[in-house]
Structures are given as structure tokens and as C-alpha cells.
Amino acid sequence: MSTFYYSLLFLVFFILVLLAVFLFWKVRILKRQNKLLIRQNRDLNSISLPDETNYYKLDPHLLKNALNAIQSHAYQSYHALDKLSNVLDYILYETDGTFVKLKDEIAFAQNLIEINKLKISPLFDLHIRKKISAEAGEMLIAPFMTINPIENAFKHADVQNENSFISVVFEVIDDYFHLTVSNRVMQKQKIDSSLGGLGNKTFSKRLKNIYGTEYSLNTEQKENIYTVTVKIKLYQND
Q1: What is the pTM of this model?
Q2: Which of 86, 165, 180, 218 qualifies as a cystine partner to 125, CB 3.0-4.6 A?
Q3: Domain Signal transduction histidine kinase internal region, which positions (predicted)?
Q4: What does the pLDDT average to over 44-50?
């Protein structure tokens, strides 16, 4: 395998490690909450109450809320692992050739986005738009052309700002695939081609080696909004 594939596998391994740490942290918190509930219950049992209130031990709504929280974390973990499984399938089994179907590359990108959503609040403004016809989805593109802009958006977005956002737009215009990724960055943060280091350089080099002059890669920062636009020639799937 090339250095790019080893880097990609390392990225997947790193995500798995982060997910494992996240789950371990959540389990520890839930255990502490459970111990606290048990201690509170014992304290309540030790208090002498009037007969008419002696039936009270623990608010059932509190237990219901705790159960809902556990179910929510379990669903998020299952959902992320399912998306990660799809990512691994794509890397291992669907990218042996030079090109893949555009619809498969888009599905891969959407799975990456779902995994990265673990890093942000459920209320974060994440906007995804896809304007690709069924016919265009059958056209061919080099694999992993969507990784770099999307990963950088999640890495550098100002997630603490209430007006922050990430926007990802997939579309096909005149047999060219357009990927536009925008995000708000922190004030006074200047993003340039060197940010991201080797990843950005490798992405630019792959585009040039595979597509020659049949692509464009543009970056722009206006105030605190950073935008990457990638335009790639699609080939017919004969």
C-alpha cells in the first residue's frame, strides 16, 4: 500500500481509539452517577418521615431520565460504529481500482461526517446539501477526494461560537464534481495552505498527479468564514 493508504488506516485507527476513550469516559460517569443515586437512596431511607410521606424513596422521573441518557449514548455509539464499519468497507474493498463511482465516494464522505458529528454539540449548525442526479452518481472519480476539506472543516471550525457552522455541498455541473466546504473559524485565526501540513500537500499532489489540468482547488477566507472549493472532472462509467 502507498503512504496515503497507511495514513488513512492510521486515521481510522485513531478514530477507533478516540471512540473507545469516549465510551470508557461515559461508562465511568454513569457508574459515578449510579453510586450517587444509591447513596442518596440510602440517605433517604435513614430519614424518619411522617407516615403519609414514608412511601417516598426515589423520584421515578429521575431514573427515567437516567435511562434515556444511557439509551442516547448507546445509540450514538452504535450509530458511529456502524458508519465506521462502512468507512472500513469502502477503504478495504471498494477502492482497489483507480476510480470509484461518485455515489460511493459521496456515501463515504457522509459516513465520515456522521463520525465527526461526535465531536460537536447536537445543536451545532451542520448543513449538508447534495445536488447529484442518479446518472451523475454512476460517473467515476478517484477515491478519497472528499476527505481533506471535510476533515479540516471539523478540525478548525470555531465550535464554541454560537454562530459557528459547517456547510458541505456536493453537486455535479457539466460533468464536473463540485465540493464546497465552508466553516467559521476563530477570530484572528488565519488559515492558509500550510495549515494541516502533510495532509494538504498530499491532497494537492494527488489531484495534480491524477487529473493534471482537469481540476481546480481554491481556498478563500473572508472575515471569519473559510471556504474550500474543489472542482474535479468526472469520467463516464463505460
Answers
A1: 0.68
A2: 165
A3: 57-120
A4: 48
